[in-house]
Amino acid sequence: MDACTLGDLLDVVGGPALRLHTAPAGQAVPVTEAVLHDGRTPLPRQPGALLLAVGVPAAESGPLLRAAAEAGLTGVVVRGADGPVAAAEEYGVALLSVAEDAAWHHVHLLLASAIAARPTAAAPDSGLGDLFALADAIATATGGATAIEDPRQRILAYSTVPGQPVDEDRRQGILGRQVPASAENTEQYRRLFAADRPLRLPALSAGGLPRLAMPVRAGGETLGSVWVVDGGSLAPDADDTLAQGASTAALLLLRARAARELARHRGSELLRRLLDGTAADAATAAERLGLAGPARVAAFVLDSTAGVPDTERTALRLLDVVRLQCEARYGRHAGVLVDGVVYAVLPGSGERHKKLAEDIVARAGQALRVPVRAALGEVAPGAAGLAGSRADADLVLRVLDAELPVACVDEVRARVTLLRLTEVMGEHRELSAGAWRRVLAYDAAHGTEYARTLVCWFDAGCDMAGAAKLLAVHPNTCRYRLRQLQQHAGVDLDDPDERLVLWLQLRALAGLSSATP
After folding, report:
1. How far apart are CA 67 and CA 45, in angstroms?
2. What is the tens place of the pLDDT at every residue in 219-230?
3. How far is residue 326's CA from residue 454's CA, in Å, rounded to a whole number?
4. Which contacts of 77-85 are long-range, i.e. CB under 8 A and separated by 24 or more positions?
5. What order of strands is seen across the sheet that includes strand 221-229?
6. How far is CA 197 from the centre of its chain?
7. Which of 268, 324, 262 is closest to 126 using CA atoms?
8. Is residue 21 within 8 Å of residue 97, measured between CB atoms?
């Protein structure tokens, strides 16, 4: 398929999120990427790119439109609807806008995800490969071994140019993919992330080498940093090279993040359709999610009685916990949040599923400081049965409580069966009509306990002594009540079918049991 066009992009994210004001070259022009523009840096020459005018008021974006046209860009996105349409038409570039309160990094992620959705886009993991290539390019141009890190000081990529000096700190960092922690190191990072230009930093230990470092930012967000080992022979223009390299690193990191988010979003939507039974081909959907063979659905939910102040945000954090634990157990794994419930598919025949659910409930409870409950549906032999397993899990959630926070459907089969019977009987007049209403009406009018006497008798297997024991009365009292019941409520207790229906109705519809006080 051809590259993404402006029309394709508007089809995906157009409307309230992104408005088109003019497209002098038409909507068939290509859109290769979305670029965050910082007014303090030169405009990059990236033909086909869509420029996000960060820090430039919409009404004052005329000069930027001209510069975009000269750089071969497809269009410019401003914040607010008062951009210079006439200037855009004069220079032949598209002018689009987002809402005044839109966050630029959210807009960038949205557009980059939509552009990356094209089949010609790079694979989700290609960003890291590009980072290694960038590290080599920076190392070659500056003359020093280079590493690219995320904000948590994890090494994402490093150069492999031969012959460049390195020290023990670099070796240990690459081996562990994490910069060694120290108080001196923390102070250097504090200085670095407060800077807006390349910073020269001294060696941290005897035998170590100094560094030239630059923070990686986009739209005010710190994405990481680039570090060059200064072995004493850096190029004269190393500072400028590093600044340009950091700008490219920002683009690659944003692109990689957008691709990961898009892949996760696709997986979530595919899982959602698989669980609600709307996937066009369940087997194909399961294959794309990496699911094969038997599996069951696990549902996780916050305890609604805990009084969570920000339920939506806490539910998203629960989704992260569930995904993390499932990925640790099963590798790359999809999870989805639907109406406050987090669903995950647990592969396998089920021997360790409950233990995993219990571990997740314990970890999530500690991390979120909110009680969490988990329900597991029946193990399905294949993808086609996952919608049914999800329905099981939904039912189990409804019978869980503080005493039973985690359960498989087989462990509470009687409860969920009675729950479904209650719903079905309540929905149909012919199933909810009958003598049970007359029994309850007689009790209400005369202050008797005939309904509970009946239930205790049924629960005792129609044994009079057993019923009397449950009621804490003499067996003769029980016999008397049942005779009166048949006389006044028209109940035929000699008919086994009527006894069964009456018991179900009193248990399911009236909510009575032998334990009812």
Report:
1. 10
2. 778 899 999 999
3. 49
4. 77/18, 77/34, 77/50, 77/51, 77/52, 77/53, 77/107, 77/111, 78/53, 79/53, 79/104, 81/19, 81/21, 82/58, 83/21, 83/58, 83/59, 84/59, 85/21, 85/22
5. 155-158, 146-149, 221-229, 211-218, 199-201
6. 35
7. 262
8. yes
* Tokens linked to 22: 């003019």
Enter the tokens of residue 42: 């030169």
Q: Is the CB of residue 39 less than 8 Å from the CB of residue 23?
A: no
Q: How far apart are CA 415 and CA 421, in angstroms?
A: 10
Contact 345, 386 (CB under 8 A): yes
Supply the DSSP string of 128-158, one letter for each residue.
HHHHHHHHHHHHHHHSS-EEEE-TTSBEEEE
Identity of residue 487: Q
- H/E run at residue 8: helix 6-13
Tokens, residue 293 = 């063979």
Contacts of 295 (CB under 8 A, 6+ apart): 345, 346, 347, 348, 379, 380, 383, 386, 389
Q: What percent of the chain has pLDDT over 90?
A: 36
Q: Which residue has 């086609």 as its token pair? A: 384
Interval 356-386: pLDDT, tens: 999 999 988 888 888 999 999 999 998 888 9
What global pTM score does this model have? Answer: 0.50
Q: What is the largest CA-CA distance in the chain?
A: 108
